[in-house]
């Protein structure tokens, strides 16, 4: 696991143990799977991790921060996409974004909880959400290559909207990469 996964904006680990943060995140994944987002609390996550509530709050400000941090941890663990130079834009976009779209595809409670969490107004969540959006934009820009920046911005918004739709149960995560590829094919100068 990279140290970038634990560069929490407000609660930087400086002196704290990354393994404790990982233990809390692992406990949060299990807790949300068993109780759902509504039933999950930082107190329950702390108990599952075998730490005090105060310790849990010294790492994460809220359950929303926990679940957004878990998405961030998974996102930063992904390898950079490698593109076939001969591939057209739709195929490059699928290569870039499929791993991201599938991060929580098989964990419905985590997906639903993560969707709700990333919309929170918590300062820690907002900072992570901005970083997550930056990774989306980076991967999409890499797939686009020479395309205008407006195309990257539009595809980034489309991807974020597709994740939100999937998190609400209106779309399957597994369908997002194909839909993104189809949408990219509609770009006038798709290569």
Largest sheet: none
Strand content: under 5%
Q: Class by helix and strand content?
A: mainly alpha
Q: What is the oligomeric state here? A: single chain
- Apparent shape: elongated
From the alpha carbons, calculate the radius of gyration and give it in angstroms. Answer: 17 Å
Beta strands, count: 0
Specify the helix fraction band. 55-70%
Poorly predicted regions: 1-6
What is the H/E order?
HHHHHHHHH
Q: Report, as a whole number of angstroms, the end-to-end distance.
A: 35 Å
Number of domains: 2
| Count of alpha/pi helices | 9
Query: What value does the average pLDDT take?
Result: 88
Structure characteristics:
single chain; about 190 residues; about 0% strand
Descriptive notes:
The chain has 191 residues and is mainly α. The chain folds into two domains: 3-72, Arc Repressor Mutant, subunit A; 79-185, no CATH class. Helices cover 66% and strands 0% of the residues. It is built from nine helices and no strands. The longest helix is centred in the N-terminal third of the chain and has 22 residues, at 18-39. It is elongated. The model is unreliable at 1-6 (pLDDT under 50).
What's the helix and strand layout?
Blueprint: H1 18-39, H2 42-49, H3 53-59, H4 63-77, H5 89-101, H6 108-118, H7 123-144, H8 149-167, H9 176-185
Helix pairs in contact: 1-2, 1-4, 1-6, 2-3, 4-6, 4-7, 5-7, 5-9, 6-8, 7-8, 8-9
């Amino acid at each position: 696991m990279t140290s970038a996964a634990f560069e929490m904006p407000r609660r930087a680990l400086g002196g704290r143990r990354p393994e404790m943060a990982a233990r809390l995140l692992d406990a949060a994944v299990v807790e949300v799977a068993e109780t759902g987002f509504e039933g999950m609390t930082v107190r329950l996550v702390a108990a599952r991790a075998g730490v005090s509530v105060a310790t849990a709050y010294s790492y994460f400000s809220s359950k929303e921060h926990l679940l957004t941090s878990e998405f961030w941890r998974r996102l930063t663990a992904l390898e950079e996409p490698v593109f076939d130079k001969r591939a057209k834009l739709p195929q490059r976009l699928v290569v870039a974004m499929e791993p991201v779209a599938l991060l929580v595809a098989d964990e419905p409670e985590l997906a639903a909880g993560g969707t709700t969490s990333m919309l929170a107004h918590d300062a820690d969540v907002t900072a992570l959400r901005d970083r997550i959006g930056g990774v989306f934009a980076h991967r999409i820009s890499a797939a686009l290559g020479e395309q205008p920046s407006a195309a990257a911005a539009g595809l980034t918004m489309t991807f974020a909207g597709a994740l939100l739709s999937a998190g609400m149960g209106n779309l399957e995560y597994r369908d997002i990469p194909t839909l993104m590829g189809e949408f990219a094919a509609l770009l006038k100068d798709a290569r």
